Amino acid sequence: MYSIIEKCSAWRRDWSARNRERYRAIKRDYYKRRPEERKQQAERSRRWFLANAEKSNASSNAWRLRNLPKAAARQQRRRTTLLNCMPPWADHAEIQKFYDLARRLTVETGIPHEVDHIVPVMGRLVTGLHIPINLQVIPAKKNRSKGARFDWESFRKDQTNGV
Fold this sequence. Notes:
Layout: H1 4-18, H2 20-33, H3 35-51, H4 57-66, H5 68-82, H6 92-109, E1 113-117, E2 135-139, H7 140-146, H8 152-159
Antiparallel strand pairs: 1-2
Helix pairs in contact: 5-6
């Protein structure tokens, strides 16, 4: 059950989406008539960013650099979720281990490694899922040359151990 506030917020979002130009004009006129409120709002925003530096965009980039495997996993998860390739039952922790391994191998060997989908997520003939059984860590050069192709014969050999 929605509360009154949630209903009003939803209505306002819907209305502003349907009446985008009118909504922008109303906001523009509101701030033109109230320049002191605009200055106060800007000051509140500035104080918030100073007090919450870890949440601001600059520190977000610093976090991303400190946590590259996690950032890469987040980016890949978002991408595949948008493509509906990650089922709800996928084990996120297990998938994260592949990204951690790729990062560790890159640091240890000096050769860039990436997480590869064995069955491509965006293949022409077949579409794979973003799940642990479909992931492998390979050198980036090999992954880039592979592209979104899927070699059925080599896959079958790998699955039957060359029989």
